Amino acid sequence: MADITISKKDDVHIRVDCEPSIAQELHSHFSFDIPGAKFHPMYRNKIWDGQLHLFSMFTKQIYVGLKPYVEHFAEVNEYTVDDSKYEQTADKISLEDLKDFISDLKLTSREKPIEVREYQLNAIYQSIKDGRRLLLSPTGSGKSLIIYVLLRWHAQWGVSRKQLIIVPTTSLVEQLYSDFQDYSFLDEEWNASDWCHRIYGTAEKSNTSRITISTWQSLYKLPKNYFKDFQAVYGDECHLFKAKSLTQIMHKCVNSPFRIGTTGTLDGTKTHKLVLEGLFGPVYKTTTTKSLIDAKQLADLKIYAIILQYKDELKKANKDLKYQDEMDFLVQHEPRNKFIRNLTLDQKGNTLVLFQFVEKHGKILHDMVLQKTNNRKVFFIYGGTDTEQRENARKITEKETNAIIIASFGTFSTGINIRNLHNIIFASPSKSRIRNLQSIGRGLRVGDNKSKCKLYDIGDDMSWRSRKNYTLHHMVERIKIYADEEFDYSLIKVDIWLKKQKATLNF
Predict the structure, then answer these.
(1) What are the tens digits of pLDDT across the range 31-88?
(2) Which residue, among 302, 250, 313, 314, has the nearest Cα to 280 in the 3D structure?
(3) Which pTM does this prediction carry?
């Protein structure tokens, strides 16, 4: 008899039967410290140990996608494994047959025929062959096309497999729907309006369509029964799926053996990666941003890491600020905002200015820019902007050549496609690897009149003697990301109190 027996409970969890001592080992092996847990009230009150436990001692269950990790654990510890009761669901297909299938789709973009790139073909092939995949595919690599081909593949089976696409924003619902219409322009047998139902806001949840595109906010409170007929589920921008509300949705998809997650980047932590692999499947890296830039499939990127310098008396006066107090000071500091305004107005081409705080920063920047420009269209986008306005801004900007979008990171850092974006300015300090790379991706799409993009990343040196301020540390981390990604970047110091700041910038 094997030490460990693996069977499938449903399409979310496997059951691992073993001796209590081995179960304890598995529990410890799949337990991880949560960053920042010590600040949580439940941890302080000793209600929670501050860890994420992926294997349950009580149910003996763990995510289906972590089966390879359980097998590796057994191998390392010399335990025998019996998985004869585990049935894997996947479709058999050859690479040549897949090429024929894709050819029959008559794929288009902007009403012109297109070819699937080799890395997209391989990602599609792996996803069909394995049934489950976490596709790590950078912004601009054509994730929506990969999803489209996969949903067309699943749509061909019998009366078709019922499919669910989960996205984080209403804008992405509309964008995916629009992309599917675009890809099927020459296909007389398939159109998005017949096959796809969109859910956000007050839209009807129940429908007879074979494909549902929805925000997670519209779904997470629905009962388990709502999800029982979905056989294939896609999580777009799935780096967000570590949130409890999103994992709850995936837990309800108990009859969905086909699972594909797509994202441009992970946050770099092991827990994040394992949760997503558990929900969707093993990571498959489709390509890299550097490869796409070298192949001219993305715009050339030049990054200017601007480190603002402050007077000593100001540094000394603010040396003991807590993180949030430092952020509040910086985003409301008038000389800093004037610098951002001037930098924005000096740019030629469509320019995206990203901020974090709406009232304390975004509206201030918007008003300052409006006061100094007369002949440029200026858009202000944040969480309170409705979907139609956001989509209109995106579409209008693609037709413009010299517009300014002042937008919150939350609305424009993830998923929004703007082909004709020439400049990006990070107006607010950020320590998020995901937000950083996703935001950069907004400017990398190649447009009709655009092959290059500039990013201005604004950091702040408020160090006093040996004490380094929080946002400077975050700037250093972002620069490490640029180096890791092999981006072309330059470091530039600017004295914030100088009236002629532009003279110090040799762009």
Answers:
(1) 998 877 788 888 888 888 888 899 999 999 999 999 999 999 999 999 999 999 998 8
(2) 250
(3) 0.82
C-alpha gyration radius of the chain? 25
The CATH number corresponding to 291-504 among 1.20.120.530, 3.10.180.10, 3.40.1280.10, 3.40.50.300 equals 3.40.50.300
Alpha-carbon gap, residue 372 to 345, rounded angstroms:
8
* DSSP percent split of the chain into helix, strand, coil, nearest 5: 40, 20, 35
Q: How far apart are CA 32 and CA 35, in angstroms?
A: 9
Helix (H, G, I), strand (E, B) or coil at 171: helix
CB within 8 A of 50, min separation 6: which ones? 33, 34, 37, 38, 40, 43
| Tokens found for residue 264 | 């441009």
**CATH code for the domain defined by 95-287:** 3.40.50.300
Decide: 350 and 420 in contact? Cβ < 8 Å.
Answer: yes
- Say if CB 287 and CB 142 are below 8 A apart: no
